[in-house]
Amino acid sequence: MPTDPELIRGMLSTILLEVISRGPMYGYQICKTVNARTDGHFDLREGSLYPALHRLERDDFLKSYWEKMATGRRRKYYEITDAGVAALAKKHEDWREFAGAVERVLATVVPAPQSAI
């Protein structure tokens, strides 16, 4: 079952910062990495990837640079900044608190309704 797009949208910045924190990556590589690491639950497409990368760049969480390939083509790489590392650490903390709160709600035993006899 595909993951709810609203859940992905809310976590996209965190996911991108986490993936890119492992080393500089280019767009297609980011898509493939996210899709592989989530076993296909997040079918990340370029239409949502690049606007998110540009937002993270505007926020100074990522920086980009062009690299020329052996074929002569250029490829744009994204790299996490110090501000991005700090933001990612905060996002990790926020996620742990949020996930814990959701787990506490989901783990609550709700008594079955009593039938009227």
Detailed description of the structure:
The protein contains four helices and three strands. The chain has about 120 residues and is an alpha+beta fold. The radius of gyration is 19 Å and the shape is elongated. It starts with a helix and ends in a 10-residue tail after the last helix. The model has no long low-confidence stretch (mean pLDDT about 90).
CATH class designation:
Mainly Alpha
Shape: elongated
Largest beta-sheet details: 3 strands, antiparallel
Strand content: 5-15%
Q: Would you list the SSEs in sequence order as H and E?
A: HEHHEEH
As laid out across the biggest beta sheet, the strand order is: 1-3-2
Q: What is the total number of structural domains?
A: 1
Arithmetic mean of pLDDT: 89
Name of the CATH superfamily: Winged helix-like DNA-binding domain superfamily/Winged helix DNA-binding domain
User: Structural class of the helices, strands and pairings?
Assistant: alpha+beta
Low-confidence stretches: none
Tell me the radius of gyration: 19 Å
Assign a percent range to the helix content.
55-70%
CATH topology: Arc Repressor Mutant, subunit A
Tell me the total number of β-strands. 3
CATH architecture level-2 label = Orthogonal Bundle
Separate helix tally = 4
Distance between the termini: 40 Å
Give descriptors for this structure.
117 residues; alpha+beta; Arc Repressor Mutant, subunit A; 3-stranded antiparallel sheet; 4 helices
In brief, what are we looking at here?
The protein has 117 residues and is α+β, with helices and mostly antiparallel strands. The protein has four helices and three strands, in the order αβααββα.
